[in-house]
């Protein structure tokens, strides 16, 4: 994790272009660990990346002592330069080993951000639609119970409005 990379000025332009804001509704204790369940995926998870993979929206100032780790597909870490870049932003693979490490062997004050609907949810995003994919996605709840971590719901209003995409019929 590199505070220098997370604080690049370019991220403020990214934040302002879409526009992205982080609204705090509750205090989080640095003595606890958290799983943030983020919805919706959108086309590219702009809100999740900007809020939890950078400091453009002031996460560390709003939640002092909490270190966010946005979880993404493990395949993204197979490309050498991309891997290093993702890791410098505090981004981790969304697999049991990584999440287990962050929630039980890395001290407290960790917040693992999981985009619960994943790629399946991204296929249903369109302006004005807010489809949430939760069916058969209970592993994050089980993990929170096993590790004693708190679940924090996170909703990104407007995530699906960033891009138009072709919506295909179910089963095509």
TrEMBL record:
Coiled coil region boundaries: none
GO CC annotation, single: perinuclear region of cytoplasm
Pathway: Glycerolipid metabolism; triacylglycerol biosynthesis; Lipid metabolism
Catalytic reaction(s) noted: 1-O-(9Z-octadecenyl)-glycerol + (9Z)-octadecenoyl-CoA = 1-O-(9Z-octadecyl)-3-(9Z-octadecenoyl)-glycerol + CoA; 2,3-di-(9Z)-octadecenoyl-sn-glycerol + (9Z)-octadecenoyl-CoA = 1,2,3-tri-(9Z-octadecenoyl)-glycerol + CoA; an acyl-CoA + a 1,2-diacyl-sn-glycerol = a triacyl-sn-glycerol + CoA; all-trans-retinol + an acyl-CoA = an all-trans-retinyl ester + CoA
Localization (cell): Cytoplasm, Perinuclear region; Endoplasmic reticulum membrane; Lipid droplet
One MF annotation (Gene Ontology) recorded for this entry: retinol O-fatty-acyltransferase activity
Pfam families: DAGAT
Keyword set, alphabetical order: Acyltransferase, Cytoplasm, Endoplasmic reticulum, Glycerol metabolism, Lipid biosynthesis, Lipid droplet, Lipid metabolism, Membrane, Transferase, Transmembrane, Transmembrane helix
Major site of localization recorded for this protein: cytoplasm
Tree of life domain: Eukaryota
One GO term of the biological process aspect: triglyceride biosynthetic process
Transmembrane feature ranges: none
Enzyme Commission number(s): 2.3.1.20, 2.3.1.76
Membrane topology field: Multi-pass membrane protein
Similarity section: Belongs to the diacylglycerol acyltransferase family.
Protein name: Diacylglycerol O-acyltransferase 2
